[in-house]
Design brief:
429 residues, mainly alpha, globular, 0% strand
Length: 429
């Protein structure tokens, strides 16, 4: 217990100090700054370990390295991160662009997973990794969902047009659930192949069982949520619903992640339903709690990822595999969005298909959900395959958050220059 508290204090020191440094001096996007500066701290820590192995600081670094990120995510905070992303949805806002958001969140995520799986399967054949098609498709579903927190916080700084901004945010929020559902489907294929279980039984148990648990628990908790006038009790009720759903599913071999998303979507609906009859101050406190908790959990996650960067690169073959994973991710994301531009109807705000595809490809950042899904494969595949999937997923998260995040402004400005009205304005001047 004391060791866990020590690690938590160290992480909070880094979150606070690195956040202040960024706020006062560098002015980067918050998520980018945490990961980038944590990577620098990780490099410094490695140098201290190498050159001063007996120093007191080395013991502290060893303690931090012993932190079990898999346990932290899978048995600690994943359900709350998924719930928070889902419960922020304002379902009534989707009416105007329902078709476009649906196509991007469902079709683009599915195609992205399939395209990535096919590309990585080809790469695994060339490198002799021996990955099966179901494993590659499962890997594709892990890296397909984009991260709503990183994407919206970065892109909103550039003054994106309202409709384009809503499309990106809506896709990022909804495709978490779609990505988890695809992961359950493809991981069911992997489990069925390794245990000789029927694929449809595995998928039906994990997917539909999780949905049933999430719906039942949420409906049981709804009367308390709706009738209480105390904002804290609304928060406690939502915490009870998501944690109970996740725990029940994990014990019944259902997908706790799916149940968490279902709870989040239902509580989003409940929130809108009681908003008209509740004190707005209560609703605001409820929203603020989940905003702050989401920010805290993601901040710790970005710090841990940054500190882990050096050690991930030391894994066998990880440099070449990481490069392949990053390139495959860009191709798969670009291809899936490009296909969707023909299905989603008119692209808003004067964007053409090419500009819109480039914007959403380069703005498709990855975050904590991808890492959590990668870690959940530990009991599905062998040790070597697990570490390849985990390392490549981390590489994609690093690249999309830092490289794509830092260069997003330049990409956006270049796209803006080629919009029809801007081109006409430049020609006239």
């Amino acid at each position: 217990m004391q060791n866990a508290l020590n690690i938590f204090v160290v992480f909070m020191i880094l979150v606070v100090i690195l956040g202040i440094i960024n706020e006062r001096f560098t002015h980067l996007t918050y998520e980018i700054s945490l990961m980038l500066f944590s990577m620098i701290v990780g490099v410094i820590g490695l140098l201290i370990e190498v050159f001063t192995p007996n120093a007191p600081m080395t013991n502290l670094i060893g303690t931090i390295r012993s932190f079990n990120l898999e346990t932290f995510l899978m048995n600690g905070v994943l359900c709350f991160m998924l719930f928070s992303g889902s419960c922020h949805l304002k379902l009534h806002d989707f009416k105007e662009q329902a078709r476009a958001v649906t196509v991007l969140s469902i079709v683009a995520t599915f195609l992205g997973a399939v395209f990535y799986g096919a590309l990585f399967y080809g790469a695994s054949c060339l490198l002799g990794l021996g990955f099966s098609i179901p494993v590659c498709l499962m890997f594709g579903s892990i890296v397909a969902p984009t991260d709503p927190i990183a994407a919206t916080s970065i892109l909103n700084k550039f003054g994106l047009p309202k409709k384009i901004s809503f499309l990106i945010e809506g896709e990022s929020l909804l495709n978490d659930g779609v990505g988890v559902a695809l992961f359950v489907c493809f991981s069911g294929m992997v489990k069925a192949g390794s245990s000789n279980e029927n694929f449809f039984l595995v998928m039906g148990r994990e997917l539909f069982g999780a949905i049933a648990v999430g719906v039942v628990i949420s409906l049981v908790c709804y009367p308390i949520f709706a009738k209480t006038k105390d904002a804290s009790r609304k928060v406690f009720t939502s915490l009870l619903a998501v944690s109970a759903s996740y725990l029940i599913c994990e014990n019944l071999d259902f997908s706790g992640a799916i149940a968490s998303v279902v709870c989040g979507l239902l509580f989003s609906f409940f929130r809108d339903k009681v908003e008209a009859t509740s004190d707005m101050e209560e609703i605001k406190k409820y929203d603020n709690f989940w905003d702050i908790l989401d920010s805290l959990l993601n901040s710790i996650l970005y710090v841990v990822l940054g500190l882990s960067f050096v050690f991930i690169l030391q894994m066998p073959q990880m440099v070449i595999i990481s490069l392949i994973a990053i390139v495959a991710n860009l191709i798969a994301r670009g291809g899936s969005v490009g296909v969707c531009t023909f299905l989603m109807g008119k692209i808003p705000d004067g964007y053409n298909r090419r500009g819109f595809t480039v914007l959403l490809t380069w703005g498709g950042l990855r975050g904590g959900l991808c890492l959590a899904l990668a870690m959940s494969t530990a009991n599905m595949v062998d040790f070597r395959t697990y570490h390849i999937i985990l390392g490549a997923t981390c590489a994609i998260v690093f690249f999309t958050t830092i490289v794509q995040g830092l260069t997003m402004k330049k990409v956006y400005r270049q796209i803006e220059k080629h919009l029809p009205e801007n081109a006409a304005r430049q020609a006239a001047s």
